[in-house]
Amino acid sequence: MSALRIAIVGAGPAGFYVAEHLLKQDAHAVEVDLLDRLPTPYGLVRAGVAPDHPKIKAVIRLYEKTAALPGFRFFGGVEVGRDVTVADLSEHYHAVVCAYGAAIDRRLGIPGEQLPGSHTASEFVGWYNAHPDFSEREFELPRRVVVVGNGNVAADMTRVLGLSREELEVTDVADHAIDALADSAVEEIVVVGRRGPAQAAFTNPEVRELGELADCDVVVDPAEVTLDDVSRAFVESDDCTPTSRRNVEIFAGFASRAPAGKRRRIVLRFLGSPVEIKGSGRVESIVVGRNRLVRSDDGRLRAIDTGEREEIECGLVLRSIGYKGMALAGLPFDPDRGTIPNDHGRVIDPGSGEQIPGRYVVGWIKRGPGGVIGTNRKDAQDTVDALLEDVTAGRVPEPSGDASAEAVEALLTERAPGHVTFSGWQAIDRAEVARGEPHGRPRVKFSDVDAMLDVARGQTTAG
Prior knowledge:
Blueprint: E1 4-9, H1 13-24, E2 30-36, H2 43-47, H3 54-57, H4 60-67, E3 72-76, H5 86-92, E4 95-98, E5 104-105, E6 118-120, H6 121-128, E7 144-148, H7 152-162, H8 165-168, H9 175-182, E8 188-192, H10 204-210, E9 216-219, H11 229-236, H12 242-255, E10 264-269, E11 272-278, E12 285-295, E13 301-313, E14 316-319, E15 323-324, E16 342-343, E17 346-348, E18 355-361, H13 364-367, H14 375-392, H15 405-415, H16 422-436, H17 449-456
Parallel strand pairs: 1-2, 1-4, 2-3, 4-18, 6-14, 7-8, 7-14, 8-10, 9-10
Antiparallel strand pairs: 5-15, 11-12, 12-13, 16-17, 17-18
Helix pairs in contact: 1-14, 7-10, 16-17
InterPro entries: FAD/NAD-bd_sf, FAD/NAD-binding_dom, Ferredox_Rdtase, Ferredox_Rdtase_adrenod
Family: Belongs to the ferredoxin--NADP reductase type 1 family.
Pfam families: Pyr_redox_2
């Protein structure tokens, strides 16, 4: 076999870690092409990480080192399923690794969910992060906002809503969002979680940061963080992580803190599930059902509805209850889990249980949404180990067509003539950084694809 040619669909952390592991191993000569539907790489590190978290984005430097390795190419602005199919890729590559994440927000499934003023996390996060899919959205930011969810994305949205102009203007938040956020009418952000404080999915730093905003108090009713018998037993058990125990302590600290009279306030609420969003033409309130925790027969803690109801007036609801992956033509899909069926990254035919040769998955589309950025590194190693084991065992098929790098370039030039190589992305990157320098900001992002392409076209198409 000549050089092993691998296509990776999705240029987020999972895709870059697969590329890194493949290109740094010594057992086989490998060439990797990383494809993404956007002209920009790095996935949620660029478009999902909160703009006031620049240290998390520093991981991009590692991905830049991967991109500099011999055998690496990036093709941005290429959508698999639209410009090329999985079958097309199989003609030119020994294996296709899907790393395209989980882009669909889970639904609450309650009346009023689709009212104007009720938005998904993807919409709002994409809007303030200059994601091209969402930059044209408009958000009415009223006096009270309700955020549904107790994970880090919910915490990020809450914190961004509470940032002062001074805090916003030193970040790479989208230009169009700075004035809207800084000058908004928002006075109160109510965060509603389905389970108790001991089960909240926030990481400790995300919780602490809520209490460190310059112009935003955190308010917690002591009753909200008083543990019931079930939660107390959970906290004392081996099932409770140190992170969860520390969260409980931080919440209790918030509850004992007197508000400082800042411009805005964050109110943390637990054991509440939305049952209806109400309004005449747009969101006017949300009805929340009170829950209690019970331990089911399998030992898991479940939140069950007590029948008690509370209506909270609000003009905006942001829903952050998790994500699901989406199907890609030519591959099996589990609609319940929102993942591609697999065994350690090997794609499996759910009917026969047999491996589909030359098809692999990594990241959220492999295991479901969860973990932090670094979780993808070990996950990628798991998939790469399986792929290389299959190569050694002769289970990876030869491409059915021309497997040369030139053939792929010709195909993509025909199907996606505006595609962006890594050198094109570097031109976009330099331009964004230059736009930010006069304002003391790390960058001012382009949110329009055509503008990005105009910058990228000034560079060589090789790369």
